[in-house]
Amino acid sequence: MRIKESMGRRVFLAVNAILLGLVGFACLAPMLHVLSCSISDPYTLARVQGFHLWPIAPITFDGYKTVLSYQNIVIGYANTLFYVAAGVGLNLVLTTVAAYVLSQKRFLPGNTIMLFMAFTMLFNGGMIPNYLLIVKMGLIDSRMAIVLPSAFNVFNLVIMRSSFKEIPDALEESARLDGANDMQILWHIIIPVSKATIAVITLFVAVALWNSWFTASIYLTDRSKWPLQLFLREILINNSQRSLDAGVKASALAQQTLVKYCIIIVATVPILCIYPFLQKYFVKGIMIGSIKG
Q: What Cα–Cα distance (Å) separates residue 96 from each residue in 178, 197, 230?
């Protein structure tokens, strides 16, 4: 038998749907604006100001041709994929092992070590000491200069440690009674139960590495090791320089604006493809790994 909903319940659902729809539109609209502008006519786009949810005719792909015709764009994609894959893998291994050890109640120095690690979230040496450290380690112009500094993050450790501490002790105790050691418990029990948290941390690290360009600009001089973001930055600078050389003509400025929109799409779409696969874990992973008072 179907229970009839009250008027208050219907009003609540309607208002809730409207508010969520507005929030969803507010998140989606900027992306639609950039996508529409990237294939719009640059000269008409320069004259027509405002927000655009659909392309301005005539539709053109000249901006994408300019960006994708850059000879180093494939190298940049390959390097970025390597940095993301290596950085995420190394970060997950170190964070998972450290979180497991520090979440064990029998490990007495755990809380003290966490305090020292948390201190680094508030204070750090800064850019110059980090640069000198990379120089002393002989990592200048090395791919490891990008991967190693991202190999460990205290914020991710706090989330994962809190998630591990939420797992009932009975699971680990029963495994030890069956003769399992720490590595077996971590691999067969802790990690499968914490898939949501691991997925969230994977997303955090992958997005950070994908968008990173400043570190590479400091440590890398060999262009064959540059990530995608540095090449896109170079395209933007070169395009701006051509506009200045052209005397800042309206046509040059219009083309420069079009290239900017296309660069945003080229840099953003690949990482956005990861979200649908991790979205179902995102909220659950954040809530499980949150610090409870």
A: 23, 10, 31
